[in-house]
Amino acid sequence: MSAKPAALLIGANGGMGRAVARALLDTGYALTATVSRRAAIDPFLADCPSCEAVEALDLSDAVAVKERIAALSSRLSRVDAVVVCSAVAPCAPAEMVAIEEFRRTIEINCSAALAIYQATIPHLRKTRGRLVLTGSYSGKVATPVMAAYVASKFALEGLTDVLRQEAQGWGVEIVLIQPGALDTPMMRRTQEDLGHTIANLSANQAERYGDLYRQMKYRADEALANGTYSSPEAAAAGVIEALRENPPSTRYPIGDDARYMLNLAKNSSDREIDDVILDIYRSAPL
């Protein structure tokens, strides 16, 4: 039986997840992880060979997620920390987003978090452990062309508050990491997909949303070129801070963009936020 504190990491194969895995191992946790697909297991283990176990887990079915995580947790001698890094971020305005894609985004980004909590809370009670969820400034400030993602992150904000309130009596802390834009492979794939989407808009779609799409892509390309996106390692450092601090903060913003947006949400009216966000888009050259 390992004397180390034990962590369960969900979504370890993404850019942030891989950085969190390395940080947990470096901090001295015995790590068990899940990745999104079987093909990701070997590359993950090549990068994190001291991980004690890794399984493939699809988060798009929260009922199945609860069953799998409950079975996985029951095989561990203890669970001191559970960290969830997985998310999907489809780009589409509300009028255009497919209902199935919207549902899938909510399932992966929010419903799966509830399933993981339900599966692991019996173990976290025993250790007075912590659950760290990954939100976004998009859970407080909406932006165009991200309808499904924004809705899922707003929902996760509320869910996290409820979980934190309900778990306090057991000494279990529920913490939300709030990254801004991270320079990850997923972010770069999203940039490539945006170009493809813009090129394939119908005439009506291009008339209604073409400018917003192009403005969004310009701003994201500009940030990547200028190196202003935060690193996955910065997010991983936030996770470790959330696990070490006693008591932890309820939320940990990551990156200057996240801190700016979250401050905007605290101190501005809805109309003022709308004006700031739309001005950022409108000021981009077309």
From TrEMBL:
InterPro entries: NAD(P)-bd_dom_sf, Sc_DH/Rdtase_CS, SDR_fam. It comes from the Bacteria. Gene3D superfamilies: NAD(P)-binding Rossmann-like Domain. One of its GO terms (biological process) is steroid metabolic process. GO terms for molecular function: oxidoreductase activity. This is Short-chain dehydrogenase/reductase. It comes from Croceicoccus pelagius.
